[in-house]
Amino acid sequence: ILQLREALAQNLVFEIKDGHNLSLWFDPWLQGQSVISRFGYRVRFDSVLPWNATVAAVISNGAWDWPINTWELQEISGLVQSIQLGQGTDIIHWVSKGQKFSCKAAWEAIRCRHPKVNWANLVWFSNCIPKHSFCLWLSCHYAHWTRDKLQRFSVEVSNRCTFGCGYVETIDHLFFGCRFTGAVWKQTLAKCGFRRIVRPRNEEAQWAILRLRGINFKIWITKIALAACMYHCWMERNSRIFRNEFKDSFSIQNNIWSTIRNKCL
């Protein structure tokens, strides 16, 4: 977080008036930088001003009054002449004068930007269920800690699928190459009006990306159902491992559609 201070400082506009509310040395009021970060600690000692000095310490009778006993201080004195002083209390603006700060604007200013992925609208959409969409998002990034991945990190655990099919548990197998989870997804699709054979994960993902476009009710509820199916299959997997509790596919289907009904109400 501390490393982001400079990036955020570039979006702040300091309107200096009486100077009492701004740190002379540490606030980035001087062309987007603090005096210390631009000129170093030596200028503080040369100025004989204290560490807790405010900008008001170098303002006299409404004008700049910097000490000029070294070339660095002379340079600072020259730079600040372009900064107009006003009457009243100092104001810090976001991006431009008069614009209010918001967390969204700050995030947009500092976040890394990448091209939009083709599955973005499949995962995040209006009235989605956040925890379900997050589970789907993890799957798109191959980020679930499946047993094959745990073994690669030297965790002593069986790599076999918890649904008893005998195959190695991988992301591709769990969603929905496994007979158990594949049957749950097939039943879920059928209730959404799609009767089709469940394909390997990559093919199934491409089908969903291409087919589940638009904003009609059938598309929306199928996207809700996809995320809910992944979430409840993952939760059932965890329940079997950590609590030794088992549900059949019919019970999982009931959980999925109970969630969807509650969302539709």
From TrEMBL:
Q: Which domain of life is it from?
A: Eukaryota
The organism of origin for this protein? Cephalotus follicularis (Albany pitcher plant)
Ranges of residues in domain Reverse transcriptase zinc-binding? 101-185
Q: What is this protein called?
A: Zf-RVT domain-containing protein
InterPro entries, per this entry? RVT-Znf (IPR026960)
